[in-house]
User: Which sequence fits this backbone?
C-alpha cells in the first residue's frame, strides 16, 4: 500500500494567502463580499497547495451536492448495446461537466432495482435527476416524485397528466414519422409498411400515429410490432413479408430496427431500394452510415437532447436556490415559474436506402 499524503486544509490555504479562514471559505464556496485582490490571493493559494474542498462540509454551506442522478429505465445490456444511450449520456455529461457537476448513473435491470433507485434518490445524495427511456407502467415517476428530487424527463411522459405537469425534452416524433412516410409516397411507393418501436413508450406510439396520419387507409397487416432492437426488426420484417409479400417500402421506428429489417430483406433476395425502400429514425451515424446501402433516416439530435435535459435541470436548481432540502425541493424544476419542456425538430437525411 502507498502512504497517504495529508490533504491541505482550509487553515493552510488561509495561512498561505494571508487571510482569515472565513475569507477562504467564502471564496471556495462561491460566496460574495470578498474583494477581488483577496479572492485572487485565495485562488492562487488553492492552486499552489492543491486544496480540494470537503464536499460534505461544502454541502452544508451551499445546500448542493453538485451531483445529478441519471436514471435509465433499461437493463445494462440494452444501454451499452444501443448507441442512442451513449449519445444522450455524452450530451448530459458535457453539460454537467461545464457546470462542475458529477453524473451518477443508475440503471434498472428489473423491478427489484426500482426500490433501490428510489431509496438512493430519497437519501439526499444528489441535487436532481434526469430520467429517460420510461415505459408506460414504469413505477419510476412515482418513486421520483416521492423522493422529492427536482427532475427532468427524457421523452414525453405517458402517464396521466404527466405531459402537463412534468418538464421534459423530446423530439417531434410524430412530425418526423409523417415526413418519412411522405418521402416514401413521393418516391411512388404504395404498399408502405411500418415496424413500430416498443408500444409501451410514447416515442413509438407517436411514430405510429405519424405513420397513420399519412397512410390513413393503410392495410393493418402492414403494421408489425418491434422493440427498437435489431432482433425486433428482423422478426417484424419476416412477419411483414409473410403477410404482405408485395410491400414496396418500410418505415422502421429507429435505425437499429431498420438494420435488422435490412438483413432480412437481403436474405430474402429483396433489393434495397429497388424492390423495397427503407427509412429509419434517429440518424445514429454508427448505424445509419454503415448499413449497406447507407440508411435514409429521420434525424433527431440525441446529444443535444441530453444537453438540454441537464441544462433545464441545472437552471431549475439555480432558481430554487438549492437541491433537496432547500426551499424549493421536490417535483420537477420550475414547473409554473421556471424552465419549460422542449420539443426539438427533426429532419429527413437522404442516403441510398430510399
Assistant:
Amino acid at each position: 500500500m502507498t502512504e497517504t499524503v495529508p490533504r491541505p486544509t482550509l487553515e493552510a490555504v488561509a495561512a498561505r494567502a494571508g487571510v482569515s479562514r472565513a475569507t477562504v471559505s467564502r471564496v471556495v464556496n462561491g460566496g460574495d463580499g470578498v474583494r477581488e485582490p483577496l479572492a485572487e490571493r485565495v485562488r492562487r493559494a488553492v492552486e499552489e497547495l492543491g486544496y480540494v474542498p470537503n464536499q460534505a462540509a461544502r454541502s452544508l454551506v451551499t445546500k448542493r451536492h453538485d451531483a445529478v442522478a441519471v436514471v435509465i429505465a433499461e437493463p445494462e445490456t440494452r444501454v451499452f448495446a444501443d448507441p442512442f444511450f451513449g449519445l444522450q449520456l455524452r450530451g448530459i455529461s458535457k453539460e454537467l461537466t461545464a457546470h462542475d457537476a458529477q453524473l451518477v448513473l443508475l440503471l434498472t435491470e428489473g423491478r427489484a432495482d426500482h426500490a433501490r433507485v428510489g431509496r438512493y434518490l430519497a437519501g439526499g445524495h444528489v441535487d436532481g435527476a434526469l430520467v429517460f427511456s420510461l415505459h408506460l407502467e414504469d413505477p419510476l415517476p412515482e418513486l421520483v416524485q416521492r423522493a422529492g428530487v427536482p427532475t427532468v424527463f427524457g421523452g414525453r411522459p405517458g402517464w396521466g397528466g404527466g405531459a402537463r405537469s412534468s418538464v421534459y425534452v423530446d423530439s417531434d416524433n410524430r412530425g418526423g414519422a409523417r415526413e418519412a412516410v411522405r418521402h416514401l409516397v413521393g418516391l411512388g411507393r404504395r404498399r408502405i409498411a411500418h415496424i413500430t418501436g416498443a408500444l409501451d413508450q410514447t416515442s413509438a406510439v407517436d411514430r405510429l400515429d405519424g405513420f397513420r396520419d399519412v397512410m390513413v387507409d393503410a392495410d393493418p397487416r402492414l403494421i408489425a410490432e418491434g422493440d427498437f432492437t435489431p432482433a425486433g426488426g428482423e422478426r417484424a420484417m419476416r412477419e411483414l413479408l409473410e403477410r404482405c409479400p408485395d410491400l414496396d417500402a418500410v418505415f422502421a421506428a429507429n435505425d437499429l430496427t431498420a438494420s435488422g429489417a435490412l438483413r432480412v430483406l437481403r436474405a430474402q433476395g429483396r433489393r434495397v431500394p429497388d424492390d423495397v425502400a427503407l427509412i429509419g429514425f434517429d440518424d445514429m451515424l454508427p448505424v445509419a452510415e454503415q448499413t449497406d446501402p447507407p440508411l435514409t433516416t429521420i434525424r433527431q439530435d440525441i446529444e443535444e437532447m441530453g444537453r438540454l435535459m441537464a441544462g433545464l435541470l441545472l437552471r431549475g436548481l439555480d432558481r430554487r436556490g438549492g437541491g433537496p432540502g432547500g426551499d424549493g425541493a421536490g417535483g420537477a424544476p420550475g414547473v409554473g415559474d421556471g424552465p419549460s419542456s422542449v420539443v426539438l425538430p427533426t429532419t429527413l437525411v437522404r442516403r441510398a436506402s430510399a
Notes: The mean pLDDT is 86. The two ends are 61 Å apart (CA to CA). The CA atoms of residues 161 and 295 lie 37 Å apart.
